[in-house]
Amino acid sequence: MKKFSIALLLLLLAQATYSQELKITKKTLPPAVLTSFTKSYPAAKIHGMNKETKKGVTYYEIESSEGKVKRDVLYTSDGSVAEVEEIIGLGEIPQAIKDAVTKQNPKDKITSAEKVMRGTSIQYDLEMKSKNKSYEVSYSLDGTLIQPHP
User: Fold this and answer.
1) What is the pLDDT of residues 106-126, one digit of tens each?
2) Least C-beta-crowded within 10 Å: which of 25, 93, 94, 109?
3) Distance between CA atoms of 135 and 150, rounded to whole angstroms?
4) Got the DSSP string for 6-43?
């Protein structure tokens, strides 16, 4: 019985932390989410929508583009923005981050960059390439390493 209880507890814990993503349409998107998106990005073209649950909280993601900017915006059901991710050009990476990358990984190359905004917090997620593998790292605006590569 003890083994069954532990297994059940582990299963419930895994479900609570597991992120599920489901493609949806405008019909199933909460109206507040669509209103918030179109108000903030009136010229953006929507490419996809997802409903996802992270740690028991339901979010709605709108994948879009506006000119050369590719953007994913994550909303709560009331239309509040939880996160904005924008793919940026390598020339748009702040100098402090470029300097940190050069110091920490002098032989590696940045292949792509994404600016991630959560409330007032901004971080940059970089896809890096070394001789034989690719990896991701994250930096704060001032060049502080947030997430080192494994």
Assistant:
1) 999 999 999 999 999 999 999
2) 25
3) 8
4) HHHHHHHHHHHH--EEEE--GGGS-HHHHHHHHHH-TT
Q: Which residue is listed with tokens 């507890």? A: 9
Q: What is the Cα–Cα distance from 41 to 47, expressed in whole angstroms? A: 13
Q: What is the pTM of this model?
A: 0.81
CA torsion 141→144→145→147, rounded to 10°?
Answer: -60
Mapped onto helix, strand or coil, the DSSP state of residue 85 is strand
Is residue 42 pLDDT above 90, yes or no? Answer: yes
pLDDT value for 126: 97
Beta-bridged to residue 122, according to DSSP, are 117
